[in-house]
Design a protein that fits this description.
669 residues, alpha/beta, Rossmann fold, FAD/NAD(P)-binding domain, D-Amino Acid Oxidase, Chain A, domain 2, 8-stranded mixed β-sheet, 19 helices
Length: 669
């Protein structure tokens, strides 16, 4: 089948509201686009509880829920969030302590943050829940936005057309809230494609409930395989619909790419994560939040390193032409920004200073101009600045225009890894894993000191060393050496208002230290500090920010390569510069099963890809790991725990570690 259209890198039009007095005399939001109310302050909540909660028998089902995976509800039309907040309250009231809830909701015209907050004041007892929602309310950008409502409840907002978003959903649903403005007012939503997407994303026996009894809805549900029945409606509405789907259709999305069919769920009581950098530590924390016991293994403990004053930039460089990689990185940037704000609201580990990407050549200026023309994103996400505005944002005179990401940030990477490693449920184990032995019954990790660790599943997150195990040797990874330079600043030294990027990057100084760099040496793994690299970093800093460097010298800063200190690290990159995040393929089996592709790429065997059971990888994050690793961690944890994924399925496939095996087969490599 052909790939469904992915949403563009674009902002969405916000809901257009007017506030009207209802029968109680209170103001309630009304959509001017659809000429319909979002709810009645008089009985809107009672209607939600009758139609969607009782209509799906949720109190009873929540009380009986004992599965390790979360109960999943999906909704067509988030609106003010009333339905989701009521489902959350119902879950808290009835579900056992170990249960989890996953909410999925689509929205084509999201409310502004202020309108959302105003609308939800109608129910004071929901205020604590509403505050969590409003605080994390995402930018109006098409795609998936994951919010952590509390320790047991996750919400994925899918911004865009409901039918298109559900066709892109990677996950299965237990109960549907078929909501939205009335079919007569919003026929574009209630179309056959919507019901077909619902059926394809349903688990066997999934229920639905909807306020409408419109003929088009009944016909659409029946055609998609849902059995519907009329049941008593609420208030003046005499009848509504409820029902189930006994046998959802098979997922046909990967007919042309059967190797990407996900492996079946398996036990995950104990997961071993190899590597305690940002990739591994974020996976460990994501799993532990879901109640999984995690052993995090690394050769050294970052908590013992002391203050190294390192700063990393949360940034992306998006392509002019829309592609899967840019969509993935934009999703990662937005995800990391929300994730950091929830993880560390005090901002001890990060600062949302924004990031300015300078255009220092005519070629780069033209590229940035084309990017802005092609991608109408909100200015709160990215905006073009002329030289004067860029200088004001940077806090120093710059030589040209740039792209400004106001909500990007800099991060203390080592402190972040330490914080994640201390997530309750994560146990750190110092050691070097030398070999992996496993299969259907679980895994044994052999350590260099002769000890071993037993685990149900394993995640490899060791950067450039991730391919040194027998199971991962087929994954191409290139080591890339990078050196950061550090300058101890004298009193009175200038600062910056943004992280500034060009050929390198420099964050605003922190703790009296200026970090800048970094060099980029593919294939180099030497960890020795080099004065020549300090000279290169210094030259790049002066090329991008000559006036800032002049001000540093005027303040007495010793800007000479021999006076700088630094840190060296080895990143890992894949050949296509996208991360590996997902199950580890059995490369030998893939070459056997799909050998025919080498002769004729159109002859696709109907065979699911074989994987090493319970073995996962998060690697090849390169220099943008702060924008990719936390999202990839959520992807892997969600897959392990059998819950909806935080990315559209084509992006999940784009990150699949087996993609290079197939590419090499097709190209005869």
């Amino acid at each position: 089948m052909s790939l469904p259209p992915l949403p563009p890198l674009a902002g969405l039009e916000s809901a257009r509201l007017e506030w009207q007095r209802d029968e109680t005399g209170e103001s309630a939001p009304r959509s001017t686009r659809f000429d319909d109310v979002y709810f009645s302050r008089h009985d809107g909540r009672a209607e939600t509880e009758h139609v969607f909660l009782a209509g799906n028998d949720l109190p009873r089902r929540f009380a009986a829920w004992t599965c390790a995976r979360p109960f999943t509800i999906a909704e067509t039309g988030f609106g003010t969030g009333l339905n989701m907040l009521c489902a959350w309250a119902c879950f808290d009231a009835h579900a056992p302590p170990g249960a989890r809830l996953h909410l999925v909701s689509t929205e084509r015209y999201p409310l502004s943050r202020d309108d959302l907050a105003r609308a939800l004041t109608a129910w004071p007892d929901l205020a604590p829940r509403a505050e969590r929602l409003v605080r994390q309310w995402p930018e109006p950008v098409a795609g998936v936005h994951r919010l952590w409502l509390d320790a047991r409840v996750t919400l994925d907002l899918h911004y865009g057309d409901a039918a298109e978003r559900l066709a892109l959903l990677e996950g299965q649903v237990d109960a549907w809230f078929l909501d939205g403005f009335a079919p007569a007012r919003n026929p574009e939503m209630w179309r056959p494609e919507l019901f077909a997407a619902m059926a394809a994303r349903s688990r066997p026996g999934a229920s639905f409930a909807t306020f409408t009894c419109a003929g088009a809805v009944k016909r659409g549900l029946a055609a998609a395989g849902f059995a519907w029945r009329k049941v008593p409606g609420y208030g003046r509405k005499r009848e509504m619909l409820a029902g189930e789907i006994a046998s959802p259709p098979a997922d046909s999305r990967r007919q042309r790419t059967p190797w990407f069919r996900p492996p079946p769920p398996r036990p995950a009581g104990h997961v071993a994560v190899i590597g305690a950098g940002i990739a591994g530590a974020s996976v460990a924390a994501a799993l532990a939040r879901r109640g999984v016991t995690v052993t995090l293994v690394d050769r050294f403990d970052r908590a013992e390193l002391g203050p190294l004053h390192l700063q990393g930039a949360l940034y992306v460089k998006l392509a002019v032409e829309a592609n899967l990689q840019s969509r993935t990185y934009l999703a990662g940037l937005l995800h990391s920004r929300r994730w950091l704000a929830e993880l560390d609201p005090e901002q001890t580990l990060w600062r949302p200073t924004g990031v300015l990407q300078l255009a220092l050549s005519d070629k780069e200026q033209a590229r940035q101009a084309r990017f802005l023309d092609h991608h109408p994103l909100p200015e709160s996400v990215v905006r073009g600045l002329d030289a004067e505005a860029a200088s004001a944002a940077a806090g120093t005179r710059v030589a040209g225009p740039g792209l400004d990401y106001p909500n990007a940030a800099w991060v203390r990477p080592l402190a972040l890894c330490v914080r994640l490693a201390r997530t309750p449920g994560v146990r750190f184990r110092r050691g070097e894993v030398t070999a992996l032995d496993g299969g259907e019954a679980g895994w044994t990790l052999a350590l260099a000191d002769g000890a071993s660790i037993a685990a149900d599943q394993v995640v490899i997150a060791t950067a450039s060393e991730a391919a040194r195990f027998a199971q991962t040797a087929a994954l191409p990874l290139q080591p890339v050496r990078g050196q950061i330079s550090q300058l101890a600043l004298p009193e009175g030294a200038p600062t910056l208002g943004r992280v500034v990027c060009a050929g390198g990057y420099v964050p605003p100084p922190a703790d009296g230290v200026l970090n800048f760099g970094a060099t980029f040496n593919p294939g180099d793994t030497d960890l020795a500090e080099r004065e020549a690299d300090h000279a290169a970093n210094l030259a790049e800093l002066e090329r991008g920010l000559p006036h800032f460097v002049a001000a540093l010298r005027e303040a007495g800063a010793e800007l000479a390569p021999g006076r700088l200190t630094g840190r060296v690290g080895v990143r890992a990159a894949s050949p296509d510069k996208s991360p590996y995040a997902g199950p580890v393929p059995d490369a030998e089996a893939w070459r056997e099963d799909y050998a025919v592709l080498a002769k004729d790429a159109t002859r696709v065997p109907d065979l699911a890809g074989r994987h090493h059971p319970g073995l996962w990888i998060s690697a090849a994050h390169g220099s943008r790991g702060l924008a990719s690793a936390p999202l990839c961690a959520e992807l892997i944890a969600s897959r392990i725990c059998d819950e909806p994924l935080p990315l559209e399925w084509p992006l999940v496939d784009h990150l699949h570690p087996g993609r290079r095996v197939i590419r090499d087969l097709v190209r005869g490599g």
